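Morning!

This is the sequence you dropped in the shared folder:
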Amino acid sequence: MSEVLIRRAAEQDLRALLDIYNYYVCTAHYTFDVEPRTLAQRGEWLRKFGARGRHQCFVAEREGRTIGWSCSVAFKDRAAYDTSVETSVYLAPGEQGKGIGRRLYGALFEALAREDVHRAFGGIAQPNEASVALHVRMGFRHVGTYHEVGRKFGKYWDVAWYERAMS
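The structure's back. Tokens below.
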């Protein structure tokens, strides 16, 4: 298997980022979006990330193909929450279980360690044992569960919340 490069997300990743995300929108309960995103919407999302600051995005690339991403976004929109971020990691189908998620989160957390970030949070729609295991391996701890908080595919889903100290 060829080497996986972890780097900052760039405009050329946009189509792959959209395709990966929309795969989960259409096939899984892991995201609570129920309608696929458009290229314009994903472009607007991508432009919110910078090389510095609390909100950053990294991609995994193999042989010129973007196969996953991790990012940090605002946890809430009120000013007192500014030093908290919500993190996500998504991998292309078939790329799970290869350590790529761990590497993506590693790059993200290394970058965030240089920023004014106090806590990282991950909301994991249940069940999702692989995501829970990744978050625990990356230093997150379970802090609570919102029961039946989202409805998708005609079913209510719980979201378990995980927290990681950053400072």
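Headline: The chain has a mean pLDDT of 97.

More detail when I'm at my desk.
O.
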